[in-house]
Amino acid sequence: MVDQPLKENQILEVLRTVKDPDLHRDIVSLGFIKNLEIKNGTVKFDIVLTTPACPVKDQLKEECESKIRNLPGVSNVQVTMKAQVKGREGFEKAAVLPGVRNIIAVASGKGGVGKSTVTANLALALRKTGAMVGLLDCDVYGPSMPLMFGLVGKKPGVTEDQKILPLEAHGIRLMSIGFLTGENTPVIWRGPMVHQMIQQFLTRVAWGELDYLLLDLPPGTGDTQLTLTQSAPLSGAVIVTTPQEVSLIDARKGLQMFWKVNVPVLGVIENMSYFVCPDCGKVSEIFKAHGGEKLTQELKVPLIGQIPIDPQITETGDQGTPIVAARPESQTAKIYQMIAGAIAAQMSIVHMKDKETSAPVHIQWKVKQ
């Protein structure tokens, strides 16, 4: 008996049994399958995901290859993983930040929680996946990105049409008030001047095409935060906190601020979550344990990562090369990579789900020692 030729609908029917675990739909109905070819027993196709930072891409590829290989008449399966980042509607010609697909605010209710360090490393983690990433340092009074990216004393250029060119380090496009003022020059501005500068950053910087623009917000819920939530088409927000209650109180306020202006909260990152002794490997929860988990359960948002206290984070940041770039094989860098994947997944969920009928999807990402 001669095997019947493979048909395209046979392949697609099998692929409909493969579901994206974050979007909870099969990869055919999601439109992920492209360029399907069948020739002499070889099945070739692309899986085009919604972000190169997808944390389950290897899992999806393996499942597809396994299921197609089991079909009668299949001698070879070739799956190519690709990505096309989903973005806000009309981003190509948007009035504010044209060409930027996703604008994600990274905020904290209070200072001292390591938010800028988290933002810098998340930007690098997203870039390592192949995404185009920018970072806007919105802390006018205390900019830290020039130091963290080794750009102290550097000045941005200007285009022919008088737009500011962002500086670049480790593949990240960067802009900060620190590039425009002296290293030791304090910025003593009232609210209207801060508002004007933020507007300039949003409209007069030549960001080009980006998959993700991270906004490193100053702590609190003041003038800068209000200007950004009113002026920038935010795609989502991430809240950074530490485990103790004094930080959680302010984190709640920051989270609720975004809810009030209808910005999706992608999740909470608990920084300084624990300390691992380098000699004995013992895990110590120096601050109150499980504070971030308690907050996310209370407010029904995802806990997308817990970052340890790691002296190397401070050391590498002070040297101008954050830990994800300086020590990519370290456990802390790998945690940042997982958190970046979780944020990208949550951003894809925001774009893909039917907001009128679907309940929010919560992803729990926790690295255990």
Features:
369 residues, alpha/beta, GMP Synthetase, Chain A, domain 3, Rossmann fold, 2 domains, 3-stranded mixed β-sheet, 11 helices, globular, disordered C terminus
Give a structural overview.
The chain contains eleven helices and 15 strands. With 369 residues, the protein is of the alpha/beta class. The protein folds into two domains: 8-83, GMP Synthetase, Chain A, domain 3 (2-Layer Sandwich); 91-352, P-loop containing nucleotide triphosphate hydrolases (Rossmann fold). The strands form four sheets. Strands 8-9-7-10-6-11-12-15 form an eight-stranded mixed β-sheet, with helices on both faces. Strands 3-4-5 form a three-stranded mixed β-sheet, covered by helices on one side. The protein has a two-stranded antiparallel sheet with strand order 1-2.
Number of domains as seen in the coordinates: 2
Report the CATH C-level class of the largest domain: Alpha Beta
Major sheet: 8 strands, mixed
Low-confidence segments: 354-369
Beta-strand percentage range: 15-25%
Q: Which H/E pattern describes the elements? A: HEEEEHEEHEHEEHEHEHEEEHEHHH
Within the CATH hierarchy, at the fold level, what is the topology of the largest domain?
Rossmann fold
Q: Got a strand count?
A: 15
Q: What topology does this entry show?
A:
Elements: H1 8-15, E1 19-20, E2 25-26, E3 33-39, E4 42-49, H2 57-69, E5 76-83, E6 100-107, H3 115-128, E7 133-137, H4 145-148, E8 167-169, E9 172-176, H5 191-203, E10 210-216, H6 223-231, E11 236-241, H7 245-260, E12 265-270, E13 275-276, E14 283-284, H8 291-299, E15 303-306, H9 311-318, H10 323-326, H11 331-352
Parallel strand pairs: 4-5, 6-10, 6-11, 7-9, 7-10, 11-12, 12-15
Antiparallel strand pairs: 1-2, 3-4, 8-9, 13-14
